[in-house]
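Example record

One chain of 257 residues, shown exactly as stored in the release files.
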Amino acid sequence: MMKDMGSSCLEDLCSHINAKISSVKNCIQLRNIGEDESRKPVLHKIQNEVYLIHDLLNKMEMIVKQQEKRRDLLKEIQKTAERDQKEAQHLLDHIPPYLPKPTKSCVTVPTGKQEGQNKAVGPKCAKKPAKETVVIKEVALITTEEFESVPAYMKGRITYDQINAVVQQINKAVEGKYKILYQPLKSMSAPVRNLYHRFMEEETKDTKGAFFVVEADIKEFTQLKLDKRFHTILSILRHCQRVRELRGSGLIRYIIC
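Predicted structure tokens for this chain:
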């Protein structure tokens, strides 16, 4: 076994030496060819061709590197596009039940208001021959980003849907109140007229041009329970600048921002 291994190593060494001797012979032949004057033009031509090929290889190497950079950039763009597509699909699959609505809505009421009523209401659209379009301001729904920004101690266990459900009920009370304020007095029933007079008594110089409700309005036009959770949600709405409070004459007026 050892004899076979030694023989194999000796053969490899002989082959290596023979290859080196062959390379030396080739170099000597090439040197002799280089000294032959008749072959110098051909050798110069070959040399120039080698230089051109070398330059071409350098250019190709630069182009390959540029293409590799473009490939890497395109891969990054592809990853970004795929990530954006997944995020967009996630948003599409998880659209929240409540989305922000326009902060104002138009309610059409008959004309014929008395002069005293004009002081109790907010801005209005241009008058028409038989009726006028009145803009009643509403509370905008809370967005998911705003909900996430509310401090945890403030919202506690209250959910995003619960907040916007209260917003919709407040808007219902605002609409119910200001529809009455925009009605002609002659068309009002006795109970409605009593509400109208209460609304007028609750107006102050600080509420001029503003839309607001009090707790009595919420009780009148909605089924909301004015409990601890309701007042916590009002605190969140103040934090999100949807309403502000104005106190006076024993009342808390919730003014729409």
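Notes: Confidence is low (pLDDT under 50) at residues 102-108, 124-128.
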